[in-house]
C-alpha cells in the first residue's frame, strides 16, 4: 500500500479517536451519584439502586472529585478480613459520602438519615455485642476490630461525610494506630454532618477522632460512650507546635455546631482534648456525663489551646480536677452565653480549674456555678437563685425550664452569623421579634402570664411569669384585711379554694382578680371609741364602695327625740346579687343600753319620702345585727339592682336609760337659768 494511503488512514484514525475522547470529556467531568446498598442484587456497578455496589470500598475506589456516594441503610465494614485491621474507609478530596437512604430515593433531600441507620463499623469479625450493629459501650467490643473505621489525609472542606453512625473502632496499637478509632485525620479539614460516633476505643489519642493539625467542621454530630485510655475520650485535636512560635501564634480552629458529647471517658479530657494551639469554636454544644479519671471531665486544654464556647452547656461531667474545664500552659478559653453547672471534681475545680497563672477563662453573659467570673453580664453563680433549672439534669435533659434565670439572659450579638436554630432545631431566639437569646445550648419557648390584682388584694406571684407552652401556673389569692375575692379569670384557669391555676397556655395572657371590701372600721364620730362592721351575704361581688361613720346632726331629727350615742353608719354596697339579702354586724365600743333600736333614714315602700324608721335588729351586748334585702326595707333606692344604700345607727329615746348628766352639764344649765332670770329682772 502506498505510503500516502497509510498516512491518510492513520490521520483519519487519530481524528476519530480524538473526536471520541472530546465527546467523552463532558461525561468524564460530570459529577456522578454512586449507589451502595449491601442488599442489592443487580449489576453491582453503582449506577442505580438496583445495580448498586454492595461494598462501600468499591465505590470509594472509583469516586472522583465532585462525585457523591449514596449509601443505603445497613452495616458496612472496611474489610471482612480480621488480619487487615489497618484497612479503613479512606475519605477522598471532593467526594461526598451520604448515608441514610432507604434505597429508592432519586434526590438526596428525600433521605431520612435518622430512620435509615447507616453504620460504618469496625466489627470486622462480626462478633461484637452490639445493638443493631451499633456498639454502645466499648466493653462490648470482642476480638479483632479495625484500628480506624475511617481515615483522611490532606482532605479539605469539599470532603463530606454525612448521615452515618461510626462505631466499634478499636485503636489499641502504638502512635497513630493507637489513636482515632472512629476517624483519624492528618492535615484533614473535612465537613462532617449528621453523624454519631458510638463505642469507639483508642489507647492514646481520641477514642472516636484523632485530628492532627486540621480544622474539621462538625454539624449535628453526637459523640456517645467513646473512650481513650489517655487523652480525649471522644476527640483529641493536636496542633503543629511549630505554628506557636509565630508572632502572634497561629491557632487552628475546628468548628463544632450542634454537637453533643455524652458518656465519653479518658484519663485527661473526658470528652475533648486540645493541645498546641487547637482552639475550636463550639456553638450550641452540650457536654454531659463525660468522665476524666484525672483532669478535665469535659474538656482539657493545653499549650495555648483556647476554645470559644458559645451557647454551650456543661453539666454532669466529672474528674479528679476540673470537672468541667481544665486549662494549663497559657490556655484561656472563652465562655459566651454558656452554662457550667452541676459538674463535679473529687479534688478541686468542680466547674473550672486553671492549673497555672497563665491560664484562665474569659466569660461574658454566662453562668458558672460557685463563681462570679469577671466580665459583662455574667450571672452570679454563688447565688443559689441562679440555679439554671434544667428540665431534668439527672437524665441529661439540659433544656431550661421556663422560669430559669438563664432564659433571656444572653447576648444576641454573640451568636455567630448564620446560626438561627438551637441544638434541638428550634429557633435560636424566642420570641422571634425583640427576643433575647437564652444561655446554654437550648432555647426555651414560653408564654407570659401577667397577674393583675385590683385594689384590696394580691396575686402570688405578683410579677409576670414565664410558663412553658401548654404548661400551668398556680397563683395564690390573697385578699387584704377586710376584703374578699370578687372575681378571678383569664389564662384558662380554675379556682380551687384560694389558688387559681392556669392550664394549657397557648399565648401570652393575663390573670385578673378583683376584690371587694366586706368590713369597715373607724372611730365613732361622737368620740365613744372604735366601731367595726362586718358584711355577710349578697354574693361574692357584694362589698362596700362607701363606708362613713357620721354624726346624726347631718340628718333631720327624728319625730321623737332620739339620741344616737355612737353616731350613724352611712354606707353603700355594690355588686351584690340582685334581690339578695345581706347581714351587717356592727360592734360598738361599749354594750348598747337596754331599749336601743336600730334606726334607718330613707324611704320605705309605704312612704317614698326619706324619713326615720326602725329596722328589725338583734342586739347582743356591744353587737347589733340586721338584714337588708336588695330593693326591700332598708335599701335606700327601693330597687333590686345589686346596690344597697342607707344610713342608720342604734338610737335611744331621749328619756330612756339616759345616763345622769355630769356636774359640768348641770352647772351649765343652772348658769343659763340664772343669766335668764337676771336678764328679766333688768328689763323689769
Structure description:
Helices cover about 10% and strands about 40% of the residues. It has about 675 residues and is mostly beta strands. Among the domains are: about 1-30; about 450-515, no CATH class; about 520-655, no CATH class. The strands form nine sheets. The chain has a 15-stranded parallel β-sheet that branches. A nine-stranded parallel β-sheet has the order 4-7-10-13-16-19-22-25-29. Strand 50 (about 620) and strand 51 form a beta hairpin. The longest helix has 27 residues, at about 5-30. Mean pLDDT is about 90; it is low at about 1-30 and about 655-684. This is IPTL-CTERM protein sorting domain-containing protein. It holds the Pfam family Chlam_PMP. InterPro entries: Choice_anch_Q_dom, Choice_anch_U_dom, IPTL_CTERM, Pectin_lyas_fold, Pectin_lyase_fold/virulence, POMP_repeat.
Tally of DSSP β-strands:
52
Oligomeric category:
single chain
Structural class: mainly beta
**Helix proportion:** under 10%
Distance between the termini: 187 Å
Task: Give a quick account of the main beta sheet: strands, pairing sense, barrel closure.
Answer: 15 strands, parallel
Beta-strand residue percentage: 35-45%
Report low-confidence residues grouped into runs of 5 or more: 1-29, 656-684
- What Rg is obtained from the alpha carbons, in whole angstroms? 44 Å
Mean pLDDT: 91
Overall shape: elongated
- Note the total helix count: 3
Describe the structure concisely for a colleague.
This protein is mostly beta strands. It is 8% helix and 38% strand.
